[in-house]
Each structure stands twice: as C-alpha cells, then as structure tokens.
C-alpha cells in the first residue's frame, strides 16, 4: 500500500505541476517562470502540511517530486501548443491533482497524528494550498475563493471519505480509490454541472 501512495503522490505532483505550468504559459512567462510556477501547486500544499505536522518536508527527504514537477513543466512548455484549450485542460489537470493530493495528504496526516479531524484538515491543505499560491502569483482570484466553486469542498469530501472508510475498517487500498473518486466527482460536478454551496443572503 505504501508503494501505491508514493505512486499516487508523484502522479499528483505531475498533474498539479502541469496546471501550474499551463497557468504560467497563459501569462506568457518564460521557461524559468514556467518551472517556478509549476512547483507552486506541485509542492506547496505538501510543504505546508509537513511543516504543520512537524515532519521532514517530503521533497527535501526525497527529490523525486522535484524532478517530476520539472518534467511536467518541460512537457507543458514544449507541447502546450498542441493542447486545443489550455484553460480547459488546466481545469481538469487541477481537478485530478486535487483528488490525488487531498487523499495522500490525509493518509500521511492520519499516519502521523492518528486524528481523523487533523487528517481531514491536512488533506484539504495539501489539496488547495499550492493552487492558491499559483493563482496569487498569476494575479488571479484563487479558485477556492471564487463564488460558486466546488473546490475546497471537494478536497474535504475526498479527505473525509478516506478517513471515514479507514475508521470503518475498510482496506486502505479501497479507501484510497473510493475517496479519490469522491473528490473528483464532486469537483467534476462543479465544473460541468455548476454544483455549488449555498451562499449567505
């Protein structure tokens, strides 16, 4: 199971790095800017999670995520012109990264803290913090702050479902896939169907 989490974490790094790189390309940044902005969503949330939990920062202990993010940045830089709609691809790459990171973040926090509440919160932080940094650097309103967006809620659903399933004794492998699917479906519903939370009157 540990190997699966590592693979999913690297996959999350890659797709979130693609989302950062494409955002940089939309802003006409150079190669260095693309690489830097790719790093923000790829490692930002996990870095904040590890610092909060008092754990060694994951990309310092193992540089694999850095190389995965740089590979995603290079691929995006050279092949972005072949993507018909960078904005739409960015949206879906971000959705996939969110569903991966909220679960792997919750898994690590649950292992470290033993608290379902802390694990759910850290799952959300892992999923959304890097994207906030990316959007702020691009001078855009972060997705998580936009009215009518199911984003942090989707991360909370994914992290919460994972913790609930683990608490109920469901095998961890099953819990991981079900939780990721739950987060992705919630985010996809927001993108395609306009699902949103009620707003204050």
Structural write-up:
This protein has eight helices and no strands. The chain has 201 residues and is mainly α. The radius of gyration is 16 Å and the shape is globular. The model has no long low-confidence stretch (mean pLDDT 88). Helix 5 packs parallel to helix 7. It has one domain. The termini are far apart.
Average pLDDT rating: 88
Q: Percent of residues in beta strands?
A: under 5%
Strand tally is 0
Shape: globular
Unreliable runs, pLDDT <50, ≥5 residues? none
Please give the count of helices: 8
Termini separation: 46 Å
Number of domains: 1
Evaluate the radius of gyration.
16 Å
Please describe the biggest sheet, giving its number of strands, its sense, and whether it closes into a barrel. none
Q: State the helical fraction.
A: over 70%
Helix/strand order, N-terminal first:
HHHHHHHH
What is the topology?
Blueprint: H1 2-26, H2 31-53, H3 58-61, H4 64-79, H5 86-113, H6 116-137, H7 152-167, H8 172-192
What can be said about this structure in brief?
It is built from 8 helices and no strands. The chain has 201 residues and is mainly α. It is globular and about 50 Å long.
Core attributes:
201 residues; mainly alpha; 77% helix; 0% strand; globular
């Amino acid at each position: 199971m540990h190997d699966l989490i590592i693979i999913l974490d690297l996959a999350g790094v890659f797709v979130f790095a693609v989302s950062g790189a494409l955002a940089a390309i939309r802003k006409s940044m150079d190669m260095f800017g693309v690489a830097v902005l790719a790093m923000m969503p790829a490692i930002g949330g996990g870095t904040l999670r590890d610092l909060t939990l008092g754990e060694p920062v994951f990309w310092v202990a193992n540089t694999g995520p850095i190389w995965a993010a740089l590979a995603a940045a290079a691929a995006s830089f050279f092949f972005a012109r072949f993507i018909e709609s960078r904005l739409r691809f960015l949206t879906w790459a971000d959705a996939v990264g969110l569903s991966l990171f909220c679960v792997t973040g919750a898994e690590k926090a649950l292992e470290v803290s033993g608290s379902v509440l802390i694990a759910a919160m850290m799952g959300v932080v892992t999923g959304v913090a890097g994207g906030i940094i990316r959007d702020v650097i691009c001078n855009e309103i972060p997705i998580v702050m936009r009215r009518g967006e199911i984003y942090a809620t989707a991360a909370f659903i994914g992290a919460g479902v994972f913790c609930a399933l683990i608490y109920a004794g469901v095998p961890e492998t099953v819990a991981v896939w079900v939780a990721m699917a739950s987060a992705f479906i919630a985010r996809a519903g927001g993108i395609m169907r306009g699902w949103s939370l009620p707003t204050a009157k």
